[in-house]
């Protein structure tokens, strides 16, 4: 019997005797509450099969008129499956048909991703293949995730990726049962979030005159304008698209540093009496927001607009890499520090973050920040820390009773090289191999159980300075994303050789999807040299 291979590996998968097939008479039996999941399943299975897979009510007469031999797929919301947690599911393929059950729609959505992996990889195709048989091995799967935060971060600020690229990215992460898309929407080099109150943020702030060519240290520019921004309806659409796939979008508005694009649009937000351009270099701009009442009102207004578009609990306000050079010589900033009785600029940033935290909490949301938010004094109540500069910040925050997402540069920064092979396409620096990622444990050694439960999970980061094209994003994301997905879903400590063996099968699915993943054997000659990976032939 062929071993069914599902990535990330399910908690338990038992192969039972026999196999069943879908055919054009198959229907999706779903109670009204599960209809959205039936729609997802249809979206996943109909293109390649060409079958309509219509909805049917549970208990409705069916089957009698059928001329085929195909089985039906039944979706069931079953409170008893609470034992598998809020995202777990049970999937049974047997002579009587295919049954997906869970206590939640999220669990059913996850079950859909498993179901499609039980079928031949050609199920991932976009057009019907007449005459193909769509068989599934009989199995009993029970499955639930190790961590609740299973994230993918995408920097759409350094390079803008249109909404259709983001929705494909959602498809790909959902396939791996990752459930958070952290969208880095703003930075020095571009502002991508549309604001009704501050329209110049995108009119001016979403375009830069040129970008760096090759590695930043070469100091060369391409002379080509780059930019773009989302519309509100595109973002609302992405939110819904994600929700239908158990992917929540966590929006990031990076404040008060990494804001040169905003200051270029509205110079009064800055500390200097001069007009800046949207930054064309990579790195950390010294130009940061001022701490006036007007600048804070700006932040609250923008965050208010963000809340209107993104319904999720978590809102990321950045907080990373905020140089204090301008504040240290700015009279209003000095006056603010004195007025508040703060020790200095770090506490000024802490106060600033606290204002944002209060605003979010007042609106029923939770603040997320990079680990620098630990440096300015006490964290806002309910804050969640993303530990990127190693694990120290995350450990400190978890011990202090705050939730954390562990995403240290090693091994979670997927903008780093995947090997030492000189033929790897240009990357920022570093090296995080597939093996490094697979060996990762989000719970650092020595963190006691009382603090370990604050580790919500982990995510990878795709900073896009060196990822100008969607193909480049895919090359860096995959297959490392599959490795991290297995860590956060199946749990750390898996056997690498076994993972690589299963991955070889899984990659056939990504082939059909046309994903420009990095081959296991090493960089492909076509990807040699250039500014980023080229599409594989
Ligand atoms: C650090 S991580 C940054 C980003 C860069 C990245 C490049 C973090 C919170 N800030 O602005 O893009 O390094 O690897």
Protein topology:
Layout: E1 12-22, E2 28-29, H1 35-49, E3 55-56, E4 73-77, E5 89-94, E6 97-102, H2 105-117, E7 134-143, E8 149-155, H3 163-175, E9 180-184, E10 186-187, E11 190-191, H4 200-203, E12 207-208, E13 212-213, E14 220-221, E15 226-227, H5 232-243, E16 248-255, H6 260-265, H7 293-309, E17 314-318, H8 325-329, H9 331-340, H10 345-362, E18 366-370, E19 384-387, H11 392-399, E20 403-406, H12 409-412, H13 434-438, H14 449-452, E21 455-462, H15 470-477, H16 480-490, H17 496-512
Parallel strand pairs: 2-3, 2-4, 4-6, 8-9, 8-21, 9-16, 16-17, 17-18, 18-19, 19-20, 20-21
Antiparallel strand pairs: 1-7, 5-6, 5-7, 10-11, 12-15, 13-14
Helix pairs in contact: 1-2, 3-5, 7-10
Bound molecules: ligand TNX.
Ligand TNX is lined by residues 320-321, 370, 388, 413, 415, 428, 463, 465.
The largest pleated sheet is described as: 8 strands, parallel, barrel
Content-based structural category:
alpha/beta
CATH class of the largest domain: Alpha Beta
Runs with pLDDT <50, length 5+? 528-537
| Principal-axes shape call | globular
| Number of structurally distinct domains | 2
Q: How many DSSP helices?
A: 17
Q: What Rg do the Cα atoms give?
A: 24 Å
CATH superfamily assignment of the largest domain? Glycosidases
Q: Tell me which CATH architecture of the largest domain applies here.
A: Alpha-Beta Barrel
Termini gap:
34 Å
Estimated share of beta-strand residues: 15-25%
Query: Mean of residue pLDDT?
Result: 95
- Provide the spatial order of strands within the biggest beta sheet: 8-9-16-17-18-19-20-21
Percent helix among the residues? 25-40%
User: What fold name goes in the CATH topology slot of the largest domain?
Assistant: TIM Barrel
